Each structure stands twice: as C-alpha cells, then as structure tokens.
Automatic annotation (TrEMBL):
Provenance organism: Lophium mytilinum
Parts of the chain that traverse the membrane: 20-38
Cofactor: heme
Pfam families per record: p450 (PF00067)
GO aspect biological process, one term: methylation
Residues that, per the record, bind heme: 473
Keyword Transmembrane helix on entry: yes
Protein origin, superkingdom: Eukaryota
Pathway assignment: Hormone biosynthesis
The protein, known as: Cytochrome P450 monooxygenase ABA1
Keywords: Heme, Iron, Membrane, Metal-binding, Methyltransferase, Transferase, Transmembrane, Transmembrane helix, Virulence
Single Gene Ontology MF annotation: heme binding
Amino acid sequence: MSSQLVSSIDETLLSILSQHPLYLVVFAATVFFIVGRLRQYWRLKHFDGPFSTGFSWLWHSNVVLSGNAHKHYGYVTEKYGTIARVAPNHLITSSSELWAHINAVRSPYSRSQWYYHCARFEAGKDNVFTECDNDKHDARRKKMASGYSGKENPTLEPSIDTHAKELVHLIRSKYATPAASVGVSKPMNMASKMQYFTLDVISHVGLGQAFGDLKEDADTNDYLKSLEEGLTISNITWGLGLSWILDVPFLGKAISPSEKDERGFGKMIAHARKSIEQRLLKSTSERSDMLSSFVRHGLSGDELFQETFEQILAGSDTTAASLRIIMLYLMSHPRVYATLQADIDRAVKAGVAPASPEIISDIEARGLVYLGAVVREALRVHPPVVNIFSRVVPKGGDAVKVDGQDVFLPGGTLIGYSAWGMHRNNKAVYGEDSHVFRPERWFVDENESGGAERLAQMLKTNDMIFGYGRWHCLGKVVAMIEIHKVIFELLRNFDFALTSPDKPWTISNAMGLFAIGDMWVEVTERS
C-alpha cells in the first residue's frame, strides 16, 4: 500500500511539474540549493562551531552587524578549538602556527573576494589591501615598500616630531589644567585628538602637506565622519553578503560613492584626489615623501591614487586606534601608569630625551623597555586591527597540523583570523592570565628552562597583529614611530584621568577596524 501511495505522489508531482514549467524551475533551484548546502556541510563536518553555522550564514551575519565580531570570533575559538567553523564554507583560527603557514611569502593561499572586495573604495578598483590576485599584489607591494620603510623619506621622523609638538601644544594651550590650579577642568575628547594627529602625520609624510587638523582642532575635511560612514556601509554590505553587487557592471558603480557627492565618502575621495593632483605638480625630487617614492617605483594614474588614498585612511585609522587603546589601558591601570611615568621621568632626567618641547627620538624611545612592554601588551590584550582577513584554501586542499593534530582543509574553503583568540585569549602562549593587561609578562628570564623559546613564541605571535609574510603591514614602521613617541610625550608632559570610568568610550567594529569616540579625559599639566 505504501509503495502505491509513493508511486501516486510521484506521478502527481511529475504531472504538476510538466504542466507548470515555472514550478519545475523552482523545484530544481530548491533541490540545487539543498544539495549545495548539504555538500558544504559535509565537507567541513569535522569542524565544530556555533549551532547553524554548518548550513547557514545567519550566525556570521548577526555577529558582523553587531559591531562585536572580534569578540564572537574569540569566543568561537576558545569554545570549539583553535580552528572552528563560523559559516557553511568558512573556518576561523587562533593558531599562530597555522596562520603563519597560510600567510607565508610563497603561500598558495589567496585573499577572498567575499571579504576584500567590500573594502574597496570604488567599484572594480583595487589597492594593495584589496587586491586578491597574488601576483598583482606582490608586484604592487614591491613598488611601495621603499616609501613605507622610510628609506626614501629622510624627513619621515622630523615630520612626525612636528605633529607630536603640535599635539602637545594643543593639549597644553586649550585643555590642560595647571598643576597647582583648583579651577574647573575642560574635558578633552582624546579619541578625536589622536586621529587629528595621525591624519596630519600621514598626509604630511604621504602628500608633503598636512591637513592641519591639530592646528584647527577640528576634522577640517570631514574625513573622520566620512570614514565612519564608509566603514559602516561596507560592514553592512559584507555582513549581508552583498559584496557581489559591487562587481556587477554599471550597477556597482551606480551605488558606489561618487566624487560628485556633496558629503560622505564620495566627497572625501574627491578631496583626496585634488590633494594628490596638486602634489604631483611638484617634482618628485623637490620633496622625497611617500608619494614621490611610489612615483619613482612605477605607480601612476588611478593606481597611484588608490594606494595613496588607502595609505591616508588605513594609516591614520589603525594608528589612532592603537594610541587610544594604549592610553585607555594606562588610565585604567594606575600601577602601570605610575611605573611607566616614573621610567619616562628617569629617562628625561638622564638626558635620554631632549628638553621639552623637543621630541624624543625613535631610537631612544625604543630603548625604554617598559614603554616597549606597555605598547606590546596593550596591543595584545586589545588588538587595534581585528579583520577576519579571509583566505582561500588552494585547489586540492591543504594538509596541516593544528595543536599537534593532522587536519585537512578542503580546497576552496575560506579560513580567517581570530585576533581576540590569538592574542587576548591565548593562554597557551601568554599564560593563564592572558586576558589581563600586565606588561611585566614580557620580561621573561631567557636563562630559565624554556624561557628563550617561550619569549620567541610570544614575540612571533604578538607581531602577527601587523600581519605576516606576504601580507605583512607595510605601514608598521611609521605606526610604531608615532606610537612610541606620542605615548612618551603625553606622559612626560601631562597627567590624564578618565572623565567617565564607567563608560570610557564608544566603540564598534566595522570591517575589522574600530570606530572609537567619546573618549573624554581630564588633563593636568605636569610641572
């Protein structure tokens, strides 16, 4: 009886489908979708992850749109292992060994268009960060390396010093309360001041002329507002899986920012292009800045614009986030604050740093071991860049070792990076108190058993905050000069306290970058 019923149902279904072709199309599409999802589920079934990630992207879309994706990624790798599943065809890892393997200089892995095309400024146009073709990326990177390293920019450090002085002067003249004063303080938004500084630096060393935000104490070109708007839109596009729309001819360009826009990201692009065009009117030998170096090494036209604009945005935003993070953790930990400030005072008294208002040199600042430990520890416990950096497993798959176990990654699988898991939550590398801000953890006795190996592993893992191998951050040199100088000079000249310790700032993760605001502090001038 049951076989007759099944046969009857089959005949009825075939009759309906044959009479209504549209139903046949819908039926075929449904079957194709279900089979595809089952295949995706099955090929990665040996990787654990949150419920539904085996057959749906919903979990991942939710965490991206929440503005806290980095914390969710950290939770996943902490609960399900150093390699876990976050979507039907996407894994994530907190293993520094695996991530080093994936990002090696000659790695067969490639960047995923699914993530990186969402980070484009203009539809169909790539920069060194968004380029997913390995050969094109390597060729472009080679043209830019000298400019970022400072080898062809002898005024790099003096330019940074100029704006560090401006930052100190702005705080002293407008916000700092004299040491002996009992007057009413004027709260300062440290979040905006840090980005004014980094925007002035990167526009100065990149274009030869600073935007002037510190002098005006304002976002003179609406870069900060436009950047936040642009990142928010990109994050929504990525979270909803709509990046493919940007690659559709005509449609992608139509919905992308236009230089004719009177506000927002389009206006920002137009202003940047104008600044670059004005800079190109001068000879590259007249001033040796980053743009000059790019031109000398073969960048021109729209390629030059894309890289220079990327440099201004990424170079300012990530460094500003680093400075805010370091200052927040210092202000939140009085013992560390006092220890670092005493170390800085000793350096000043010993003549390591020139008398104020002159700025400490990069070499001397890097020689202060406690300052170095504070910088490393703050960027470890709260990485300033938490992009997922999705990679594509090469065709044929890859056999790897994770935590001593043999693991096979099927070809075409996406695999990303859990910054929170690799750095803040990594007890195996940093100890049981890995979530605690404790700069002293970096003072490892290399003479004790296993000490040298443990420190080497800590340093290698920590350095991955700036990427690794083929995709190592080009701007690290400039960023670290800025960071060490500014933290030294701020604590040398002032005392800072959070105005609202219960809510020290507003913060949201968009595309792996932090939008940070309302970081209000009270400033007292040190005598």
